[in-house]
Design brief:
Length: 238
């Protein structure tokens, strides 16, 4: 396990509390029993961690991990994701012959965070940093499909896809679109999952309908799903 203590006692105790809360809610008495920290110190540290949103309380007043923990985990996951995306998207582009992209949702839009351009011929890729609609396209379908039902219901108001289509996306694990976001362009997308199996990004390929056809998933779903799974695995193991 390596060193038990960093030499900074108060920090070691705070980390001991957070580590204990990883396994679920604990009352103050339970925290004291597990960590062997004195009751006044455990209480003071837990309340200080609560102030910084690293700890919160459940409905019974027990201590639980707070929202800041998830935010830090997500940020770390995103950095690892983008670092791993370049070679993964390049391999996907080489396997399919089409431009490959990675999208993350940001509020009401999806942001292209990584791209592997098709090397020749018609370029219909999307530049890094581009903000695209969440109301059309296979990547939008993927980023929506596993949301809670209330958010899906709200998001479908002006969408060019339906609840039935999203149910099909969840069932098969990938989405396709043909001329949905942009006339003449088809795409296939699959989800990248982070901690707790949550969908954190969508891997896509896109190209002209003349090449991809009306059922682009038949051609390329397997390759897109495999790339998304590889990125999910990379995040889980890094």
């Amino acid at each position: 396990m390596g060193k038990k203590n960093s030499g900074v006692g108060v920090l070691d105790k705070a980390v001991a509390i957070l580590t204990t809360l990883e396994s679920g809610p604990h009352s103050l008495a339970e925290l004291v029993a597990v960590t062997q920290i004195s009751r006044p110190t455990a209480h003071r540290l837990a309340v200080a961690l609560e102030f910084h949103r690293l700890v919160a309380r459940d409905l019974n007043g027990r201590f639980i991990l707070g929202p800041r923990s998830g935010e830090l985990a997500a940020a770390a996951g995103e950095d690892r994701l983008i670092a791993a995306a370049a070679p993964a998207l390049a391999a996907l582009r080489d396997a399919t012959g089409e431009s490959a992209q990675l999208y993350r949702r940001q509020g009401d839009v999806r942001i292209c965070v990584a791209v592997a351009e098709r090397l020749s011929g018609l370029r219909d890729s999307v530049p890094v940093g581009a903000a695209l609609t969440m109301q059309a396209g296979s990547a939008a379908q993927v980023l929506f499909a596993w949301e809670d039902s209330e958010r899906i219901h709200r998001g479908l108001t002006n969408a060019r896809f339906t609840a039935l289509q999203l149910a099909a996306v969840r069932r098969r694990g990938w989405a396709q679109s043909v001329g949905e976001r942009e006339a003449g362009v088809a795409s296939v997308s699959a989800p990248v999952r982070g901690p707790n199996h949550k969908v954190i990004a969508a891997v896509s390929i896109s190209g002209p309908i003349e090449r991809l056809g009306r059922q682009p998933g038949r051609l390329h779903a397997a390759a897109v799903v495999a790339t998304a799974a590889r990125l999910s695995e990379h995040i889980a193991n890094s």
